[in-house]
Amino acid sequence: VKRLHVLGGEPFLQTEFEKLLDMIEQYPNPLCELNVVTNLMIPQARLQMFVERFKKLIAGKKIRRVDITCSIDCWGPEQEYVRWGIKLDQWESNFRFLLDHIWLKLNINQTISPLTIKSMPALLTKLKEWREFRPIGHFFSEVTPGPSYLIPDIFGNIFADDFKQILELMPEDTEQDRMSKKYMQGIANRIANSQPNTDEIANLQ
Question: Rounded to whole angstroms, how far apart are CA atoms 36 and 176?
Fold first, then answer.
């Protein structure tokens, strides 16, 4: 195993995840990368406990590196509405705690939907601020496999100005940056050429 992804539920709240770390301790794989996907809605003391465990695993060559991929879709009240249970103050406090541990590989992963596009520029502005400390990966996708009423195309070409701002905020410094921007441009182009679907809009309401 070269790369192991642990997704949710929330890994940091699952006792099985602690057992996984115990297994890695007992059966090391110095070439393996561990990626944990989290919504960061956990007490910081618990997050700190896991960070200390990760640090020991890496120092002991039990594992090659640890990535923490933090789920966040947009920024502002809209985020707390679309992702039930999230509190941005707590999320950002935990994220800034992780920023200080430069040996961790940090990413954010966002889901693009009709409910997040308008406040995605605010998230990209925050990402630019966080990247002043160190590199942070940026990954995103649309709602998949559904429901279909959360696909942005259902509204037709109403997000052109938003995507213009989004694309202007996306950097082109690295190959990953350029690939991400090209992918976002493709999403913007597809939505711009879509037609409104009143039935799906009614389903969303």
Answer: 20
| C-alpha atoms less than 13 angstroms from C-alpha of 148 in its C-beta half-sphere | 8
What length does the chain have?
A: 205
Q: How far apart are alpha carbons 20 and 1 in whole angstroms?
A: 14
Name the residue type at position 68: I
Q: Between the CA atoms of 78, 83, 86 and 89, what dihedral angle is there, to the nearest 10 degrees?
A: -30
Which parts of 60-119 fold into alpha helices (H)?
Answer: 77-82, 88-99
pTM assigned to the model: 0.93
Residue 4 β-bridge partners: 34
Closest CA to 40 of 111, 106, 92: 92
Task: Judge contact between 29 and 57, C-beta under 8 A.
Answer: no
* Secondary structure letter of residue 174 according to DSSP: S
Residue where the block lists tokens 């966080």: 130
pLDDT tens-digit series, residues 6-52 = 998 899 999 999 999 999 999 999 999 999 999 999 999 999 999 99
Give φ, ψ of 136 to 5 degrees.
Answer: -140, 125
Alpha-carbon span 159 to 152, nearest angstrom: 9
